[in-house]
Amino acid sequence: MSIEDNVKTVLDRIAAAAQRAGREPSAIKLVVVTKTVDVARIREAVEAGALILGENRVQEAKEKIEMLGPVASWHLIGHLQTNKAKYAVRLFYLIHSVDSIELAREIDRQAAKIGKVQDILIEVSIAGEESKAGAAIEQTAGLVREAAKLGHLSLKGLMTIPPFLDDPERVRPYFRKLRELSEAIARERIPGVSLKELSMGMSNDFEVAIEEGATMVRVGTAIFGERR
Ligand SMILES: *Cc1c(COP(=O)(O)O)cnc(C)c1O
Questions:
Q1: CB contact at 8 A, 107 and 86
Q2: pTM of the predicted model, to two decimals?
Q3: Of residues 89, 65, 91, 94, the one with CA closest to residue 77
Q4: At 72, is the secondary structure helix, strand, or coil?
């Protein structure tokens, strides 16, 4: 299967999962994850209809963006170190991985310098695994409230990376939990905050994530094959 075929297959599977869940296929955005993928193969994905590209690392993304130009909207999906925030605000349309108020403040400060309002998601450690990035569930509402006060940030929703489990049905409870958390925070009606986006679901489980309300799925392997 070519990259082009894979992109089309994933888009079809997204549409089918949306329909099963009684949702509009257009309500779900595909983030094509391009970490470790070279620019020639990324270009193939773009030509096949990829509109959003997701990278894990600022430096790797910067090199690719310089080579490819503005062919798509770039999202940062990997952990961001505070000292790289100044590059991130220049490169990314959406940062999925904000998990502390210190990082939120630094992104706000750097965005202010370049006159930008940076769209962000709050990353939540939904299974409470110590080793994983993400804000603790109990801290998320507080983090949203604090980040909402920052003038150069716009909070769009939540993101999570649940535990990797072979059977996607076993991941479903984590996706559901992120949706319920998002709904609970939305009920607080925090000024300036609209938690519309739920970034959840990867190659192995994006259909289940869509059934549980994902608005963005992040898919790499199902498009480019196993990473080397
Ligand atoms: C690598 C990565 C993905 C894509 O995972 P696949 O299983 O290859 O689809 C999604 N989200 C994040 C944060 C990643 O680091």
A1: no
A2: 0.97
A3: 94
A4: coil
| Location of structure tokens 């470790």 | 36
Helix (H) or strand (E) holding 208: helix 206-211
Centre of ligand 1 from the C-alpha of residue 226, in Å: 11
Candidate of 97, 202, 208, 224 to mutate for ligand 1, largest count of ligand atoms within 8 Å of Cβ: 202
To test the pocket of ligand 1, the residue of 33, 37, 161 to mutate (highest count of ligand atoms within 8 Å of its CB) is 33
Each residue's pLDDT, cut to its tens digit, for the chain (228 residues) gives 899 999 999 999 999 999 999 999 999 999 999 999 999 999 999 999 999 999 999 999 999 999 998 899 999 999 999 999 999 999 999 999 999 999 999 999 999 999 999 999 999 999 988 777 899 999 999 999 999 999 999 999 999 999 999 999 999 999 999 999 999 999 999 988 989 999 999 999 999 999 999 999 999 999 999 987
The alpha-carbon radius of gyration of the chain (Å, integer) is 17
Residues 6+ apart with CB under 8 A from 51: 29, 30, 72, 73
In whole angstroms, what is the distance from residue 71 CA to residue 81 CA? 26
Taking the CA atoms of residue 143, residue 144, residue 149 and residue 150 in that order, the dihedral angle to the nearest 10 degrees is 80
On whether the CB atoms of residues 198 and 211 are closer than 8 A, the answer is no
Q: Are 43 and 7 in contact (CB under 8 A)?
A: no
Q: From 53, 72, 114, 70, select the one nearest 89 (Cα to Cα).
A: 114
* CATH annotation of 3-224: 3.20.20.10
Query: CA 175 from chain center: how many Å?
Result: 14
